[in-house]
Each structure stands twice: as C-alpha cells, then as structure tokens.
Design a protein that fits this description.
Oligomer: homodimer
CATH class of one domain in chain A: Alpha Beta
Number of strands of chain A: 16
CATH superfamily of one domain in chain A: Aldehyde ferredoxin oxidoreductase, N-terminal domain
Largest interface: A-B, 43 and 43 residues
Structural class of chain A: alpha+beta
CATH topology of one domain in chain A: Aldehyde Ferredoxin Oxidoreductase,  A, domain 1
Strand order of the largest sheet of chain A: 2-1-6-3-4-5
Helix content of chain A: 25-40%
Number of helices of chain A: 23
Strand content of chain A: 5-15%
Shape of chain A: globular
Amino acid sequence: MAKILRVDMASGDCRFTEVPSLYLGLGGRGLTSAIVANEVDPLANPLGPRNKLVFAPGLLGGTSCANSGRISAGAKSPLTLGIKESNSGGQPGGHLASLGILAVVIENAATPDGWWQLEISPDFARLTPCSAGGLNNYVAVEKLSAEQSPGCSYITIGRAGEFRLAASSIAMTDLEGLPSRQAARGGLGAVMGSKRLKAVIIHPGKEILPLVDPDSFHKASKRFAKALTEHPVCGRSLSEYGSAAMMGLFNEAGAVPTRNFSNNRFDHADALSGERLNELTRQRGGQGRVARACMSGCVMRCSGVFPDSLGRRIGKWPDYETMWAFGPNAEIKDLDDVARYDRLCDDTGVDTIDVGGALAVLMEAGALKFGDAKGALAAAAEISEGTALGRILGSGAAVAGKVYGAIRVAEVKGQALPAFDPRSVKGQGVTFATNPQGADHTAGFSYAANLLAMGGEVDPLSAEGQAELSRRTQISAAAVDSLGLCLFVSFAFFETPEAVDAVVDMLNARYGWSLTRRDLDLLGRRVLEIEVDFNRRAGLSSSSDRLPEFFAYEETIVHKSTFDVTQSDLDKVLSFKEELK
Amino acid sequence: MAKILRVDMASGDCRFTEVPSLYLGLGGRGLTSAIVANEVDPLANPLGPRNKLVFAPGLLGGTSCANSGRISAGAKSPLTLGIKESNSGGQPGGHLASLGILAVVIENAATPDGWWQLEISPDFARLTPCSAGGLNNYVAVEKLSAEQSPGCSYITIGRAGEFRLAASSIAMTDLEGLPSRQAARGGLGAVMGSKRLKAVIIHPGKEILPLVDPDSFHKASKRFAKALTEHPVCGRSLSEYGSAAMMGLFNEAGAVPTRNFSNNRFDHADALSGERLNELTRQRGGQGRVARACMSGCVMRCSGVFPDSLGRRIGKWPDYETMWAFGPNAEIKDLDDVARYDRLCDDTGVDTIDVGGALAVLMEAGALKFGDAKGALAAAAEISEGTALGRILGSGAAVAGKVYGAIRVAEVKGQALPAFDPRSVKGQGVTFATNPQGADHTAGFSYAANLLAMGGEVDPLSAEGQAELSRRTQISAAAVDSLGLCLFVSFAFFETPEAVDAVVDMLNARYGWSLTRRDLDLLGRRVLEIEVDFNRRAGLSSSSDRLPEFFAYEETIVHKSTFDVTQSDLDKVLSFKEELK
C-alpha cells in the first residue's frame, strides 16, 4: 500500500499516512509541487518552520523501467522565493519507491541545538540524533555508513546546507555509496538545514513492487530501454563523453556564455569538452570504467570517475553545466581544476551553477581574477568555513551581484542562468525567463530544437516560434520529472514516438490506468499550472518572468544578437488558454 | 522661469528644459516619483543606465516658509526594486530652489573609468572630472570645498555609493558645510555611483523667487512658524532632546525593538535617550549650541553637535532611529559609541537603519556579538574597505539575512524596519507593510496616534482602526514630502488645523492657486497612487505589502502581542476606492 511518511521535526513524530485523493496519480515533481502548493503558505519564510521539505520518487520509481530512479525534492525556495523542485539521480529515489513510499514530508523544525537523522526501513521510520553535524557530505556519509548496515542510501547536506545558504544542495549517494549526485538548484539544502535534518538514511525494501499487469510492463520496459540504447545521444554520446558531449558544438554555435556572459564563445573549448574528459580518463587509467551509471537501472551511463594525473580519483565526471560554470564563464581552461571544483561543491553541498555564477560576478567586480582557478577554488573552499566571502558565494549569483553592486548578473527569480546564452539560443532563453523554478536548464531542452534539430527545428537566433517551443519542452520536462525518469530520455522522446508510447504503456501496466500519449502532456501542464499558481500567490508576478535587462541591450559578440522575444510572448508561454505558434 | 535640468552622463550634456505639463503642480517627492514612474522602465536594472536619479526641492522650497528646504532624491531602488524617494535636510534643497530649478534628472551612465561632478550655478550647469573619487563624504567635501568658492552646498556619495551597495545613502551638506544630512534609505547612493556621479556642487542663486502674492505669503509664513514654535514637540522637545526625545516613552510602551526584534523593551534606555544626549552635550561643553538647525529656515532645530569626553566633535546628534539601530537592537548602551557609528555611516555614506539591521542579524547569527560596540564599529568600518563583510553590511539587513541564513530578519520589500515594533505599534506596522517605499518610519507617523494621542487616538495593540490610521498618515506624509517640509511639522499638522491652513495659504500665495485643505490630501493620494502603480508594474504585488512572517507567530515579551492586522485590511490601505474605518 503506497503511503506518505510525515516527519514532524518539532515533536519527533514519524507517521505513515494514507495518500489523500488530491495527490493520487502524481509522483516526483508533480507530487512535491502539489504538496508544497497545497500545504505551504506561499508567504511563509522558506527557512521558517512553516515551510515543508518533500522527497518523492517518480511514478515509475522502484520498477524495472530504465532510468526511472530519480528523486524529486521540493519546497518553497529560499533562493527564488517561489516553488522549487530539484531532482537527482543516485539510489535514494529507487530505495524510497521500493519501500512503497510515495513521499516523505519534513514538517516544522527542531530546536537549533543539534542535528538529526531520519532512518527509514521496511520496519520503521524514526528520528535520532545525528553524529555527522558539522561535516561535509563525503566525510558525513563515510561516518554514517560505518554506523549502518551495508546497502543503505543517504540523503545529506554539507556545511552549506547547515549554514542555510541559498545555493546549497541536497546530496544523494550514487551506486558506489558516494554523495556525488545533487538536487542542486534552488537552495533546498538550506531548507533541510533550517529543519535541523542532517541526513535521511534509507534501508531499501526487499520486495519488487506489485504491478497490475507485469507482462505488459516488462514488454514495454524492454521497448523503452531499446529506444534509449539505440538513440545516438542517449545510447552513445552520453556514455562516451558525459553530458559535456556537446560543448564543442554549442561553442561553435556561439551558445556558450563566456567571461560572465560578456562573450559567447570560448577560445579554449577543446580543453574543456566531453572528448577531452574521455581522453584524459583513459590516458590516466583511473578507477573503474570510463562511463558509469549514477543509479540502478540506468542505461545511458553519462557519468564517470575523473582521475588526476596519478590516476587517483578527483571526483565524478563534471557535467556540462559545471564544466561551463567553472570553465568558460570564469575563463578557466583546465579540466582538472573543473573536476576539483565539482568535487568541492559536491562535498560542501552547493550548486555548481549558482556558485559558479557568483564567482564570475566577483571576477567581473575585480574581487577575483578571471582565469585564476587557484584563487577561485580557494574562495569556494571558504563556503565550508562560513566566512563572509564563503557565505556570499554560497548564496549564489544574484546575492553576490547585489553585494558587489554588479550590473551584469545573469539570473532569473534569483537563480543563476545555466550554460546557454539566451541571446543565441532564444528558446532556452524563453524557458529561463518563464519557468516557475527560475532559470534552469532542466526545465526544458529547447536547445535541442534550436541547436540539434531534435524535436523540431527552430532558428535559435529568431524570436519566432520560441514561445511555442519553450512551452512544449517545459511541458515535456514537467512530465518526465514526475515519472522519475532522467531528463536525458527527452532526446529519445523528441525523436522516437515509440519511446513515449512505451512509457505510457508502463504507467498503464503498473497502475491499471488507461492513459494515452496526450495524458502525459496534460500531466506536464497540470504540474506547471500548480507551480505558476503557487508563485503568483507567493508574489512572483509576470514581471518576474523576465531575463535581466542587459540581455536586451548588450549584443553578443558572435552574432550581434540581443534577446528580443516580446513580453507578450513570454506571458503566453505558460498561459495554456492562449494559442501560440 | 522654473525649469528641469537634465544631465546625460553618457554624452556629458547638461540641458535646462521646460517643465512638461505632466509634472506641473508637483514638487519634492511628488515630482521625483512622477518623473521616475513616467520615465523609467519599471523592469530596468536599478544600477543600469536606464534608471534615472532625480533631485527635487519641494513646492515651498526657496521661500521664507519655515522648514521648507528639504530635498527629495528619487529613482528605482536597488534595495527595494520598487520606486524610491528619500529626502534630506541640509542646504542643497534650498539652493536648487533658489536657482529656479524644479528638478535635476541624472540620465544614463558615464564609462566606469573615472568620477564626475555636476556643477550648477546661476550661469551654467556642467559636468567635469571630480577629484574626490575614492574618498568618503567628509574628506570629499573638504577637498571639493577647497576647490570652490565659499557658500556652495554639496551632494555627495561616500565609498558605499561608489561600490553601489544597496544601503548606500546620498549626503547633503548642512549649514556648517558638513555632509551630515543623508537621503539615507533605499540605496540611492548606489544609483548615483552607478552613474559615476561623485558630487553635485550647487552655487546658490542670488534672487529670492517671485511670489504671486508676497504679502499673503509672508503673513501665512509667520502663522506657520508660530504654529510650529508654539507646539510642544515642534517648538520645544525636538530642540531640547533631538528626535530621540521620546526614546523613554516608546520604551515604556514596549515599542522599542531590542536584540534584533527578539525583545521589545531595552533595559538601558536611560543611557540612550534624548535627555542623556542633551545632558552629556552640556556637560562636555562641546562646540556650538546644544541644538541647531540642519538647514536655513528651520525653526525646530532638532540637531546638535555631539562632543566626546574631551569636548571634541564626534558628529551630529544621533537621530532616534540611529540611536535605536546601534543601541537597543544591537544591545549597545553607550551613547558615544552610537555617535561614532552615526558619524561613520555619514562618512561612508550608508543608511544607519539598514546597516544597523544587518549588524543585528549578524549578531544573532553569531558572527558578531550583541553589545560589542567595538566589534560592530570595526565591522561597519569595513564597508569603506570593500571587504566581503563590509559589502554585506553595506547591502543592508535583508541581504545580510540571506547571506547568514537568518530567519528573524525585520524588513519589508528588502528595506530594514525602523525603530518601532509592529506588534506593539500596529499602525506603524501597517505603514511598514504597505508603504510603496518599503519599511519606513518617514512614510507616516502612525505612532503619534498610537502612542502620543496626537492626530487621533488608536489603541496601539489592537488591529482595529490601524489601516485607516495608516492611510491617513501616509497621505499626510506624502503631501509634506512634496512640499519640501520637514516631516516633523506633522505633529503640528495633526493638532493645529491653523498650521495646515497656513501652508495652503502659502501655496496659493506663491503660485496663484486656489487650493483648499482637501487638495493637500488629494496631492498625497496622487503621489501614493503613482508610487503603487510603478511598483505593481515593477512586479511588486500585494504579497510584497506584508511584514515578515515571524511577527505573526512570535509574541512580544512585554505584551504577548503578535501582528494580526488582516491581509485584507493591508490590501485596502492604499486602495483609495475602498472604504476604511
């Protein structure tokens, strides 16, 4: 019987409750957003006791469906002051689902004199004092793992989350039991910290979940896995080059923000690329295979272990966004430095994008130097120390911009822009502006149609058609995020209707539903509507659905392009009653 | 012929232009707000070239009317992201008016490779390179004064404004030629800094402005001065004890926020009071008279010079808000320390309230210690150095709260609350919540009716009647701010209809108008409507017209009171079509 676990940090109560009808049929992002929208006062202080932190696996979580183990974390965001869902790979999503838990809802806050851990097993759920307070993620998980039986997965915060910094992340352990996967965006680590919850420890369930029609499910599951493995991106380039596979292509397209968004092509993109990542990893003969999965059931395997010149693990393969944030946007060109930055952020528990944006802002303000990796790493290391500088960086790009009186600050709703220049990939710019989560690359892959001719073909430099494209990809992403699927399945979705059909068939076979492909679309819309409505009640008006002003009057160097999608078009993107073309 | 001076920082052009009909009949805050609302894109970056900075004397500026020399500064605020007007005493207001200048509008921005000064005289207006870049206000004004003929007044920014910090102020020189008066709130110094304008130098005009009916004017002017001097507050307590005259009374009433708003009565209020200020000044035999005026034509004389134990000037008499911000709210109890803080803020060019709020937040976060004046002064001194800590403090309480992950942060629209606990002076709380400028004590003196039985009598602890009271006082303040009058005339206005009539008579005699008392009311409403409309277009919805959540659930210690005025009442305050009682 599926259930919701409610944890009252003030009283210590952990209660398994039935799922209210309001939440039936929802999972992942759809469920976290519905719970936050329904149960959290939109004007609540995100760090106050009235906010709630929700974890939820997706609708296909805990099944044999490929890449279905993502976990969504949701709350009112201390970064955007709007609704937030941030999802992650790693093992906790699958483990929660295997326990028949639809969602864990963390309520109220414990007194600020200690740290707590939530243990969840097939037999109990309980809050106990946590011995890992004050530690960063890697050491914390090592310590907690030594105290527990093997096979558990861990959800933790580092020092940044303890400090309640607005760019702090929540770490999830991967297949190796390392806290390398992050629900990184929107400062949800700060919400967890505000509740004095240091860790969630999940003992996986022993049984495979019941399926209404196991045969149909397994057939559809195979079709889906086949569609993924046969797709050129999902089945090959991601596992060879990681998510940075397309750095070179994006850079050629003038899409890669450089030197704090003052340029849009990086002269050293060769040194920072998926190809280079693969090459160096092989040359240096580090631990393990070149590419690996971050969670059980993944067939795309975009991750890897990046070794230093002596073959010792630095950290995971940096993702495209991280490689960009500490690379072109900071004019740093050494992949080892990027990998060290990635590891540092994973350990401290901060978002590589928002901290990278903050570093770039400080570089432009003269407080750090463009290209100075050593200086930037030392500054980022201060986040763990709680120094004034560290706290500024850990608060993200928008706050750093304010503190340093900066004008060129690339953020929407307080959240730093990721690795696409909105002036040269305008569909992505529309998504950054309008998505209820703030500027987010995972809110919809418009760049696929803008730059890769996948899922349509829309001229990246024209204002035409971007609103419609953005709406379409945002809906798709909201649906994918609700299923517990890795967003990289989108490439297959865009090009292989069979992949979508297989997913619909799995949902029907699992739950006994009779959905059609169109229902997935309606699910995505419903989620976005819930989120936009919460934001409006939280005071984020349509004026917050705008890019920073400088994108409208500073031309890009490569194309002399500005962001010129009209405000009226932006306002229509998620107003589903409005027609778009 | 009245005119508007438009200064293009990009081209260097200074043009005197006619007053468009849209702006006729407006002055001071009414005029700055109308120009900002009409000419600045509400979504413009406040620190970008598309913002405008406006200076305007009031409608009675440059006349013999008592206390009519205030100057309004206006822009889109980098602190609140809404419209801002901040006014100040000192000489520049009267000087501008004596040149027949209704407003100075600073447009665009100079390149960031130098600092500029704007000189305005009866014969010319010009931009020239400024030699005072990099200096704080006191030294800057000393240097500039040595370069100019005597008798000029100066509008300058300190290092905080140069750094474009969100709590930076604009300094105005007083009767002694010292930059002790500040348009402090809302970060307008940062806007001036963003335009690379270090100083405005005003050579006063030689002629008294023409009056349509000089006889009537002078008669009314005398009646007004008499009403002020005969009023117990305006005519006596302000000049004896400064604006801190009522610290003891407010503290008795449990109205004084203490220890970062966690208490509402300070045990050492005797040590920090107007009485003590007067006593110490006399005992120490410092420079000049005990009380003095900050500008020509002032009959209330609430200022003074505060000497140290050796009789040497520390700075001006700290105002009530400053005494509170560095006193009870930081648990500091030495008046000398408060005076040093005041002088430091005046010199650096920052708002004592917002920096004080930031200090209190850091004290609660453990980064500084409550009661540690030395530590707090050293931290505030870092603002001039541009250190990370200094920049955080210079960005004000809301940003400091975010950076330190604080929950108890007393601010509205990003601007720190001043010295009244909204739970024990609820009329003031309503004004803090709803005023378009953010939390501001100068937006309306509801505390007069709540605590002094002046201008009505409304139980400070009841939610009843506060919305109506706040509307009334906000309208009155908006009118007073548009006339160029010091807001302390409000006490006389509240109690002496004759004072209001005298002002109406002066306006009519000066301009040949035929206003009635009701027209002053309509003027105040019009100004508020302009400001609210700008804010709505800037994206500040009614959700921004709320106090921080903790005031609703943390009871005050003295009265066990929470802020319980309903959201519906708050929404009605400035919706003038709605009836209030």
